[in-house]
Each structure stands twice: as C-alpha cells, then as structure tokens.
Amino acid sequence: MRSTSATPRKFDDRHDAGRQLAHALLPYASSPGLLVLGLPRGGVPVAAEISAALSCPLDVVLVRKIGVPGFDELAMGAVATAGGSLSTVRNEKVIAGLTGDGNAVFEAACTPELAELARREKLYRAGLPPLELAGRTVVVVDDGVATGATLRAALHAVRQLRPAQLWVAAPVFLGHSLAAIRSQADQTFWLRDAPSLGSVGQAYHQFEQVPNDEVQRLLRRPPE
C-alpha cells in the first residue's frame, strides 16, 4: 500500500486534485498495461488528469448507490458494472433494519438503478466496447471517498475481470473508509485522510456537479 504526504490546504477543484495524485503515481507510469478508470461523474476529471500525466488509456467504471426509500442518502449498498461485469454490494446492517422484507426492498430499489447504469453505459461509451482489463494494472479513481460503498462495488466489479493489479487513487478519504478500501486494493494512493470532515466537498474550493457532456468530452480526450 502506498500513500502520499498529507496536505492541509483545500484542492482548487477536481483537476487540481487529479494533478496532485498524478504526481504521486508518476513512478509507476511504466507498470504493465496501465489503465485508469474513473467513477462518473466526479471521479472522471480526477482520472483524466492522471491518464494524461501517465500517458495511459482512460475509461469508466459505472456505479450507482442504492439508497433507502425516502432516505436516499442512507446507502443500502451499490451496484456497479465494468467491462460487462455486474457487481452488487449490500450493507446488511442497514437492510436488516428496514421495515418489512429488507431483501425485497433492496431488490426493488436496485431495479431503477440498474436501468440507469445501462443508460449511462450507452451515453458515455457511445457504442465503443469497454477496454480489456485482464492482466493489466488498473487504477480506479474517485474524487473522494465517504462511506466507500460505491467504490467497493466498483472494485468488486473490476476484480472479476482479473486485472494483474488493482489500485485505488482518491484525493481524500473520510471517516473509516480508508481502512476499508485499503483492504480491497493492491495499492492505495491518497492525499488526505480526513476522518473529521463531514463531506468530500469540504476538501475542495470548487465542487460543482460534473455534467454528463463534460464526462463525455474527457473520455474522448486522448492521453497527452
């Protein structure tokens, strides 16, 4: 596992955070078959900076949080897809606390999110096939990690495609998420471990929502 030195200042924006992460990853630019996967939407600008700095391909791993009906911010789990591999991560503690049949509630909540994954796959890929991940060094990138539920689903989906190495890079980790993610990645890169921050956005000066057309533009940009 690897880390970068911590920095107390806020990131200007996602591109600034991506450039800082890219600097930490530069010694690994020659890793076999290096490939960067961003989590849309916020992780893609960060991933694009890493892809450009390391002159390696950029792609996406699509993830959707499964929220409790009526309390969407409370995650029951997440679903993810990468290279045709679908993965589901469940928060059994939350599901067990639901009123009625928790499994049925979870499955019902998954249905629209799976449809949204399919829609975004078509939107972002524009008919292009996903990149082959087997035997490659894959870096999964997000703009920050709060609970880690969506990122864990992404890692599970990618791991099923048999990469040689599965790495994680994120500018900031909140709460206890860093320990949970490090246990599932071969290497982890970060700039700030901030257990006391209330949200990922608090680590940034600018943290506006990334529009879909910006994600599409960045995915079409060739490595520099």
TrEMBL record:
It comes from the Bacteria. InterPro entries: PRTase-like (IPR029057), PRTase_dom (IPR000836). GO terms for molecular function: glycosyltransferase activity. SUPFAM superfamilies: PRTase-like. The keyword Aminoacyl-tRNA synthetase does not apply. Coiled coil: none annotated. Keywords: Glycosyltransferase, Transferase. Residues 35-185 form the Phosphoribosyltransferase domain. The keyword Repeat does not apply. This is Phosphoribosyltransferase.
